[in-house]
Amino acid sequence: MLALFATVSTVLHTAKARLANEEKGATMVEYGLMVALIAVVVAVGALTLGETVRDLFTNLDFTPEGNAG
């Protein structure tokens, strides 16, 4: 996950350096930062809640209660 963040950060810094004087470039950098932030939030959420969600599905019991006949 750290490698992903470093890669996104490098790409954003490169884009910002090349397009710093253009409004289109600034807008692109802003969108890139938003995408990077969303990716980090999703990754942290998945790491935080992943085991809990897995355990919920693992512990589901669909065995019918009572007599069938």
UniProtKB/TrEMBL annotation:
Residues annotated as transmembrane: 33-50
Superkingdom per UniProt: Bacteria
Keywords attached to this entry: Membrane, Transmembrane, Transmembrane helix
Record carries keyword Transmembrane: yes
Pfam families in the cross-refs: Flp_Fap
InterPro entries: Flp_Fap (IPR007047)
Protein name: Flp family type IVb pilin
Source organism (scientific name): Arthrobacter crusticola
